[in-house]
Amino acid sequence: MEFIPQDDKRLKKYGKLVTNVDFSGIIAELEKMEAPDNVVYFPSVKELEDTPDFEKVRNVFFGETDIQIGYCNGKNTLLNAVEYHRSSEINIFATDAVLLLGKREDIEDDNTYDTSKIEAFYFKKGSAVELYATTLHYAPSTLDPAGFKVGVVLPKGTNYPLSTDHAPVTEGASNEDGLLTATNKWLICHKDAKGEEGHFAGLKGLNINIKEE
Predict the structure, then answer these.
(1) Structural domains of the chain, count
(2) Of the four listed, 38, 41, 109, 128, which is most buried by Cβ atoms within 10 Å?
């Protein structure tokens, strides 16, 4: 698999680098945190939201709407699943990391997605990227044994437990509502993904492993 540099023009269909906001405060806090053997995600973290960067990204990038800043840290080389939101997401890199990205428009009518369409982008420590609402993504990946540390900025209330039941997706049927696994989070997983049992296994093809590509 080709690791596409963060400044490659092919990123434009998925998002864009964020260069008009200083994330140094958030990065400094992320560097203090652990990158465990498993992947962990926390949607809202006080230490990150207490930095001066919080107001900057809220006002400049999210148009003064409510946001949350959390993180996704750990060690991972697999795709496992893809998700999307009804909003952009900003990822802030306190380490180098790889994002495996796809396009929501490539999801088939039956909610399946061919993983051969995924592209891998390599982001450097200190950079930040806006992922558009039409971009499929999931946990970052890295070949570094030390793992990755990535800040995640989303509209406030995203990625929390659902308060109502949603009808599951049935094979061959189109029911996007059944992909909703958390607030503002629609997810399609791979049948071989550990920890994703019970979610719609609509990824077709390989569960991409950047270590083997």
Answers:
(1) 1
(2) 128
